[in-house]
C-alpha cells in the first residue's frame, strides 16, 4: 500500500517532545519533514543523555528520518530564505509560546499570506488564548491544572509523579496528529488551510473521562486513589510480591475478580471489596506478599483474570508477544549502530517496509539542498 502522506511537506519548528513526536508520526506515514533549528547548537534535545558516541539517543528516537535546516529565525532575511519552503509546505508545526512566531515573522497570518493552503499547527501548554496562554509549564503542571494528577498522586508525605507524559503525548502529540490529518481532509474539499490551536492541558481531560462524569457533572468529591480506577477498590490496584516485584490487579469485572481470588485463596468473607475495600485489599496484599512474582505469574496467566506482573521497559521489549507482532522490528541508526525505533501507533500498511527507519540528520545537514545560506549568521 502506498504511504498516504508521501506528497506532504512538513516544516517542523518544534522542540523536545510533543511536536517532534507528532512530525515523526507524519514522517513514518510518508511525509517529508524538514526540521528547522537554530544554528550552532540546534534544539536542546540534541544535547540530552544518554548518548552513543556523542549523539543523543532521545533526540534520534524522535527525529530520525527528518531533514535538518539550521537558521537564525531572528535574522532579518530568515523569512526570505525560508519563503520557498513556506510556499510549497502543506503543514507547519510550531511549539513556541503564543506570539513568539508572530514576532519572528512566521506567525499564522504571515505564513497564510504566503501560502493560503497552509495547515498551521501550534502546540502549547494552555492554548493561544486565555489567562494562562503565555504561562510557562511542563507535563506535570498541565495534568495538575486539568485535575488529572489529583486522582492518583500518592500519599501526602510521599507524592508520586505521573508514570508517563500524559499531557505532552496524549494532550499534545496525538491531538496534533489527529487534527492535522482532519485538516488535510478538509482542505481537499475547501482548498483552504487552517490554524490548529492544540493545548496540552486541555488534551489531558480525556484521559479521565470518568472523573468528568463523577466530579464535574455529578459533583462528587474524588480523593486521591479513592476512585474505582485509581485504587479505591481492591480489584484494581498494584500489589507487591515477596521479591519486590509488583503485580497489577485489574480484575474489574466480577468473573475476573472471582478467578483472581481463587488463585490467591482469598476467603469468601473478604471478597466483597465494595463494602470494605480496605480489609479486602489488606488480605490481598498479605497473600500476594507471601510468595515471589515467579510463583504468581504462571498462575495468573493460566487464570486469564486481567492480572499480571509489572514489567520493566527492557523486559517489555523482549516480551514474546511484542516480538511476534514485530513491535520492535523497526530500527534506527545512531552513530553507526542499529537500535530499536520507538514503537508508534501507525499501522504497518502506511509505513515504509520494516527495517531501518533511517537516522537523525546532523544539524544543518540539508541547508545547501534547501538554499538556506547561513555563512554570515552562525
UniProtKB/TrEMBL annotation:
Spell out the molecular function terms from Gene Ontology.
Answer: transferase activity
Transferase as a keyword of this entry, yes or no, is: yes
- Pfam families noted in UniProt: CoA_transf_3
Family matches, as InterPro entries: CoA-transferase_III (IPR050509), CoA-Trfase_fam_III (IPR003673), CoA-Trfase_III_dom3_sf (IPR044855), CoA-Trfase_III_dom_1_sf (IPR023606)
Q: Which branch of life, at top level?
A: Bacteria
Keywords in UniProt for this one? Transferase
The membrane-spanning stretches of this chain are: none
Protein name, entry field: CoA transferase
Give the originating organism. Answer: Litorivita pollutaquae
Amino acid at each position: 500500500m502506498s504511504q498516504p502522506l508521501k506528497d506532504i511537506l512538513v516544516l517542523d519548528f518544534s522542540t523536545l517532545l510533543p511536536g517532534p513526536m507528532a512530525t515523526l508520526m507524519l514522517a513514518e506515514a510518508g511525509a517529508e519533514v524538514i526540521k528547522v533549528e537554530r544554528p550552532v547548537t540546534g534544539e536542546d534535545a540534541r544535547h540530552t543523555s544518554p548518548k552513543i558516541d556523542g549523539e543523543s539517543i532521545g533526540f534520534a528516537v524522535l527525529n530520525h528520518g527528518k531533514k535538518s535546516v539550521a537558521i537564525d529565525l531572528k535574522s532579518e532575511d530568515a523569512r526570505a530564505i525560508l519563503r520557498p519552503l513556506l510556499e510549497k509546505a502543506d503543514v507547519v508545526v510550531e511549539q513556541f509560546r503564543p506570539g513568539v512566531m508572530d514576532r519572528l515573522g512566521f506567525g499564522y497570518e504571515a505564513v497564510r499570506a504566503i501560502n493560503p493552503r497552509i495547515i498551521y499547527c501550534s502546540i502549547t501548554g494552555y492554548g493561544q488564548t486565555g489567562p494562562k496562554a503565555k504561562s510557562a509549564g511542563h507535563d506535570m503542571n498541565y495534568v495538575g491544572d486539568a485535575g488529572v494528577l489529583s486522582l492518583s498522586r500518592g500519599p501526602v508525605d510521599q507524592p508520586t509523579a505521573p508514570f508517563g507524559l500524559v499531557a505532552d503525548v496524549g494532550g499534545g502529540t496525538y491531538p496534533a496528529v489527529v487534527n492535522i490529518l482532519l485538516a488535510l481532509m478538509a482542505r481537499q474539499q475547501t482548498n483552504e488551510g487552517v490554524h490548529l490551536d492544540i493545548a496540552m492541558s486541555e488534551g489531558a481531560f480525556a484521559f479521565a473521562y470518568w472523573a468528568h462524569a463523577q466530579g464535574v457533572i455529578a459533583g462528587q468529591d474524588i480523593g486521591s486513589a479513592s476512585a474505582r480506577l485509581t485504587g479505591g477498590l481492591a480489584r484494581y490496584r498494584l500489589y507487591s510480591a515477596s521479591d519486590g516485584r509488583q503485580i497489577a490487579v485489574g480484575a474489574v469485572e466480577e468473573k475476573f475478580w472471582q478467578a483472581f481470588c481463587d488463585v490467591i485463596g482469598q476467603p469468601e468473607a473478604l471478597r466483597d471489596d465494595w463494602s470494605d475495600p480496605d480489609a479486602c485489599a489488606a488480605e490481598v496484599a498479605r497473600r500476594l506478599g507471601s510468595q515471589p512474582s515467579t510463583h504468581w505469574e504462571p498462575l495468573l496467566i493460566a487464570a486469564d483474570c486481567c492480572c499480571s506482573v509489572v514489567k520493566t521497559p527492557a523486559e517489555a521489549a523482549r516480551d514474546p508477544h511484542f516480538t511476534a507482532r514485530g513491535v520492535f522490528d523497526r530500527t534506527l541508526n545512531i552513530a553507526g549502530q542499529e537500535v530499536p525505533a520507538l514503537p508508534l501507533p501507525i499501522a504497518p500498511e502506511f509505513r515504509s517496509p520494516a527495517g531501518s527507519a533511517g537516522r537523525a540528520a546532523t544539524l544543518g545537514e540539508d541547508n545547501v539542498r534547501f538554499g538556506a545560506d547561513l555563512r554570515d549568521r552562525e
